[in-house]
Amino acid sequence: MSVSSTRILLTICVLSLVLCLCQCQGRVLDPNSRIKAVNLGGWLVTEGWIKPTLFDGIVNKDFLDGTALQFKSVTTGKYLCAEQGGGSIIVANRTSASGWETFRVWRINATALNLRVFGKQFVGVDSNGNGIAAVSITPGNSDTFRIVRDSSDKNRVRIKASNGYYLQAKTEEVVTADSQGSNGWGDDDPSVFVMKTSGRLEGEFQVTNGYGPQAAPQVMREHWNSFIVEEDFKFISENGLNAVRIPVGWWIASDPTPPWPFVGGSLQALDNAFLWAEKYKLKVIIDLHAAPGSQNGWEHSASRDGSQEWGKTDENIHQTVDVIEFLTARYAKRPSLYAVELMNEPLSPGATLESVSKYYKAGYEAVRRHSSTAFVVMSNRLGPMDPRELFPLASAFSRTVIDLHYYNLFEDKFNNLTVQQNIDFIYNNRSSQLNHVTTSNGPLTFVGEWVAEWSVNGASKEDYQRFAKAQLQVWGTATFGWAYWTLRNVNNHWSLEWMIQNGYIKL
Ligand SMILES: *[C@@H]1O[C@H](CO)[C@@H](O)[C@H](O)[C@H]1NC(C)=O
Ligand SMILES: *[C@@H]1O[C@H](CO)[C@@H](O)[C@H](O)[C@H]1NC(C)=O
Ligand SMILES: *[C@@H]1O[C@H](CO)[C@@H](O)[C@H](O)[C@H]1NC(C)=O
Ligand SMILES: *[C@@H]1O[C@H](CO)[C@@H](O)[C@H](O)[C@H]1NC(C)=O
C-alpha cells in the first residue's frame, strides 16, 4: 500500500469517526456526565406513606377523598351493592365484595360526604320517596351522607341520608332511607352495617381537602419549608450525587391561587430548590408527577378517588402542555435546569399511546420554545406496553430521554424471591431489559426511580448492600443516568439519606 493510499484511508477513518461523533451527539452522553440523582419524593407532591404525620391534624381522617368503603348489612348478612355497577338501585344481596360493592368517598367536609360507585355515579335519595339509587353524575344535596359510628366498635356504622333518616336494608333487594335508628347497635337492626375500608389514598388532593381551605395553606407551607431544606442539597452534593429529580404537581403553574382544593406556595419552594442547586452545583430534573385529571389514578398523581382522567380530551392535553411551558419558561435561564420530564408514569391502557404521544410531541415543542439544551424526558407507560413504543417519537427529536422505573416490588413474581434471586434478577433480567432500550441511535435511557427494597423478610445489612451494589452497577449502564426513590422517607430503605448515613449505600 502506497503512502498516499494509507493517507487517504486514514483520512476516511478520521472523517467517519467525526461523522459518527456528530451523529451520536446528544445520544450517547459522556459516561462521566451521567446523572446520579435522588428524587425529592413526597415534598411538592404529597404521598402519605412517605410522611404519615402530615395527615395527623385532619379531623375524621378515616374519610378522606378516595377512601374505598364496603358495607355489610347485619340483618341480611350481605353487602350493599350498586346494581349494574351504577345507574340503578342499591341492593343488599351480595355475598362478597369487590367493584360494585365498593363506595368511594368524596369528602365535603369533616362530617359530610358523597359516595361514588363503580360506574362513577353518586349514591342519593330518590327525590320523590326514600329509595336509594346511584344515578347522579354530579353530586347534589340529596347525595350527601354522614357516617355515624358505634363508639365501642368503630366498624359498626349507620349511614344518614340528606332527608334526616338512616339507610336500612329492609330486605336483600330493598334498601331505603327511612330508618329512625335506635340507641342500640344490635344484629337485628337493619340500619346497622359493618363497614370495611378496602382502600385509601393519601395524596395531595386528600391532604389539602382533608384540612380544608382554612388550615391547608398553613399546613402545606410548613411542610414545604421543613421537609426539604438547603442542608439537604449540601448533603446530596457531598455524597457522590450530582442531580435531583423534583416531582411537581400541575397546580404549581397557577400558583399562588391554584384550583380547589390545592393550595399555593409550592412554586416558592421550587424556586428555593433552584437557588440551592446552584449553590451546591447540582442539576435539576423537573418532573411533572401529577398531571391534570391524573395520568394513572394513584395518589402520587393527585387522583381524587382512583379515577384516571388524563388525556381523554384535547383540552386536558393542552392544559398539561401549558404547565410544561410555564415551568420551562420560568427556569430555562437557570444554570441548574438540566431536564424537564413531561409526565411521570402514565398508566396503560387508560393513558393510550395515542394521547401520550400527542402530548409528548407538544410538550417537547413547548420545552424547545424556551430551551435548546434542556433534556426532555419521556416516561415509558406502565402497564401493558412495548418498552420501545416511544422510540419513533423520541428519536425524531434531539436530547430526548426515556425514563424507566425498575422496582423488585409491586408484582406477584417478586413475592417469594430469595435475596440471591432478587440480585440475580437485577444482573440478568433487568440488565437485558435495560439493554433492549439502550441503543446508540435511540433516546438516552434513565432509570428515574429505583430503591434498595424488596419483598424479602429479615434480610441482613449485607444483603441490602449487595442488592444496592448490583443495581448501581446495572443502572450505571443507563446512558442518561439514574435516580433513587427517594431522599427522605419514614421507611428507612426508601430513604437514601438513611441508607447513606447508615452505611448501606456508598457512592
Ligand atoms: C358540612 O357540609 C354539609 C353539607 O353541605 C353541611 O350541611 C354542614 O353544615 C357542613 N358542616 C360543617 C362543619 O361545615
Ligand atoms: C340482587 O337484587 C337485584 C334486584 O332485585 C337482582 O336484580 C339481582 O339479580 C340480585 N343479585 C343477587 C346476586 O342476588
Ligand atoms: C408464594 O408462596 C406462597 C406460600 O408458599 C404461595 O401461596 C404463593 O402462591 C407464592 N406466590 C408466588 C407468586 O409464587
Ligand atoms: C428472569 O429471566 C429468566 C431467563 O430468561 C427467566 O427464566 C426467569 O423467569 C426470569 N425471572 C423472573 C422473576 O421473571
From TrEMBL:
The keyword Signal applies. GO terms for molecular function: actin filament binding; hydrolase activity, hydrolyzing O-glycosyl compounds. Residues 220-489 form the Glycoside hydrolase family domain. InterPro entries: Actin-crosslinking, DUF7910, Fascin, GH, Glyco_hydro_5. Residues 1-24 form the signal peptide. Residues 301-314 have a biased composition (Basic and acidic residues). It comes from the Eukaryota. GO terms for biological process: actin filament bundle assembly; cell migration; establishment or maintenance of cell polarity; polysaccharide catabolic process. Residues 294-314 are annotated as: Disordered. Keywords: Glycosidase, Hydrolase, Signal. Residues 60-196 form the DUF7910 domain. One of its GO terms (cellular component) is actin cytoskeleton. Belongs to the glycosyl hydrolase 5 (cellulase A) family. This is Glycoside hydrolase, family 5. It comes from Corchorus olitorius. The lineage of its organism: Eukaryota, Viridiplantae, Streptophyta, Embryophyta, Tracheophyta.
